[in-house]
Design a protein that fits this description.
5-stranded mixed sheet, 9% helix, 2 helices, Immunoglobulin-like, mainly beta
Amino acid sequence: MIFVLTNLAGCQNSPGGIISPATEVYVSKVVPSFMQPELSEDTSGTSSSEKTILLPALAVDFNISNGVSCFINSYVIRYYTTGGTPLNDGKFDHSGGVSLFVKAPAINWGAGGDDEELPDSATVANQTLMEVFLPAVYAFMTKGNSVITDDITPVIARIEFAGKDVNDKAVSISAQVNLVTTIKEEEN
């Protein structure tokens, strides 16, 4: 019974590493679920307005289902066609650093009253913003023109995050998003 309770609580940095479970971190949400460019009008003092393409950033939310927090410190983004082959032989793949502490939610051990709602043990979300839809990827996908039949969409961007939990165990999490070149229509 004590082992079960200790495992649920997480026992972060337990003495001697006797009971030190690994974190159970996962990607809870990716926004937007698919990425598409938008048009923006530049009206900076000129008589004619120029339209530019804006590529959105990706928000990735993380949650932890046990009591072990973790650090995410790097990522790798790889681009694939729908057939699973690397886009342009991996030319656009890139990696980088990120500094994110994913804090485990507090576990409520007390029994609440009938009218008191207990918090979900995995509701603490931690988020990072990323530039996934790069201009070079967009140019390659559209082949530098606006002819839709030349388009090679959708492209799948797979993001692999790496780090360590507070018990010094390796953490690996992945997410993916589809990239399309169809210009997003303005919502009225």
